[in-house]
Amino acid sequence: MILRKSLFLVLSAFASLIMMGEAKASNSPKTVLEKKTITRTEDFVVAPGKVLRKSLGEDINQLGLFAFHDGSLVPIPFQIDEINKEGEWVLTQVPPALAGTGLKPERDEDDGNLDENDELAFMVKDSGDRVSPEGYPPEALKVDEIMLKDPLDGGKAWVYLCSFKGSFARSHRDYVDYIFPEDQIKTGNYVMGFPPELPIVPGMISIRGSSNILDRMKIRLKVKIIGIEFPLEESNFISKLSLYKDGPIRVIRRTRSAIKFTRMFRSPAAAVENIFYENAVQIPIKARLLISTKSFKFLIPYIIVRGTADLKNMHGWKLKTNLDPRWLKIDGKMDEDENILNGKEGFNWFLASGPPGVFMIRLVLDRKPDGTFQKTPITTRLYYQDDDASIDPPEATPGESPDVGYWLDGLRDLEKGIFYIYPALFMIKDYTEGKEKDYLNIFDQPLEVSAN
Ligand SMILES: [Ca+2]
Ligand SMILES: [Ca+2]
Ligand SMILES: [Ca+2]
Ligand SMILES: [Ca+2]
I want to staple 205 with a disulfide (CB 3.0 to 4.6 A). Which of 171, 214, 300, 391 is the partner? Predict the structure, then answer.
């Protein structure tokens, strides 16, 4: 009897082991169709709604994003941002200081469903293997299998956008925070803060815990029209904070600004949205020209514009541009190498390297924020001053230590219409010589997104 009972126990234990083995087998080797081969880790990925055919029309709150990790599909951080038919962001959060001012959360025309121009955003590092439908979450009603492809080496990876009825598993990771009342964006890589008097441009930047390295963002312009010179600088901007959206992947933050030319005359207020990821900041400036400068070129002898970041607390850092592979020494004095590079044409990006790590600022002129090509007559020259004694007001910290950025040429040849010009900041992880290429590729060789 005892023998039979223990035999039974042994057998049932053995049987359950086999069953466990089977269950495991059906959940891993058989479900994985292809291994992830993408080696990029730093890209953010944006998929337009029109690619996500199966999820179109679904309630965004009922969509979840999954990837294959450790033997099953698990929820990963993502967000879906709506865009309205005018092509503007639909922002749904009101900054606390503006509560009660009449500023209302916005709605898309379809009020919360996924449509063709809405965007799904996630990080490539969270993607995984390709799995067969048996591996999908059993409660999923529809599934878009999204494939990412690296155009440089053909590497592939997958994520799964699933629609549900009722509750479903979500990731609790959040890569970027928007903090009030400080008006600061905070990630593991940087803190960027905005001053209440001019919330359109950052007033402080801390790199991985460093002290503030920014004195002031400078936009200095001189234009002569019909014999009259108009100087313009940052303090000619009047700007106000507006709506935002803070998700796990990115913060979209809007300011509304106008340019005050004289006491009587100011431009209409226009919205600008900055986009903040864990390791990058995109500051697209959308300019709408009502008339081409080209057709009035003869009335405009010059338009001189520079946009620079006047930095501080950077003695001991070094700096490299696309114009020369050598690093410049930031020490508050201009040396020969620095003098030779200053003013050089074809400036696209610079890297700054110091104790807290490496960051890159590049200027994007040849494409729109959605990645499509833009033709522009604008060209750039390097503005570089590493000189503690050079006074360049208005500024809070006297000296340009260093002041780095762009002279913009070709502004007298612009056609009428909309064009974009945007700086982007990238925080580079574990920098080794040449690694900037990986970050330049985020825009220059973007991951291809398709779905079936
Ligand atoms: Ca939409
Ligand atoms: Ca929508
Ligand atoms: Ca120097
Ligand atoms: Ca300064």
Answer: 214
**Interval between CA 176 and ligand 2 midpoint (Å):** 23
- pTM for the predicted model, two decimal places: 0.90
CATH of domain 177-451: 2.70.98
| Average pLDDT for runs of 10 along the chain of length 452 | 49 46 45 96 97 98 96 96 96 96 96 97 98 95 98 98 97 98 97 93 95 93 84 87 98 93 80 95 84 83 90 96 96 96 96 97 88 90 96 92 93 87 93 96 95 94
1 burial (CB, 10 Å; 0-12 / 13-18 / 19+) is exposed
Q: From the centroid of its chain, how far is CA 260?
A: 29
Supply the DSSP symbol for 60.
G
Amino acid at 434: G
CA of 81 to the centre of ligand 2 (A): 8
For the chain, the structural domain boundaries read 33-163, 177-451
- Minimal CA–CA distance to 399: which of 310, 331, 334, 330? 310
Peptide bond into 402 cis (omega under 30): yes
CA of 344 to the centre of ligand 1 (A): 43
Edge to edge, the sheet with strand 44-48 lists 44-48, 119-123, 79-81
What lies within 8 Å, CB to CB, of 125 at 6+ separation is 41, 42
Residues surrounding ion ligand 1 at CB below 5 Å: 82-83, 108, 115, 117-118
pLDDT tens-place string over residues 43-73: 999 999 999 999 999 999 999 999 999 899 9
Paired residues of 275 in beta bridges: 252, 282
Tell me the ligand closest to 339's alpha carbon. Answer: 3
Q: Report CA(65)–ligand 2 centroid distance (Å).
A: 17
Coil, helix or strand at residue 17: helix
CB 119 within 8 A of CB 57: no
Which ligand has an atom closest to residue 390 CA?
4
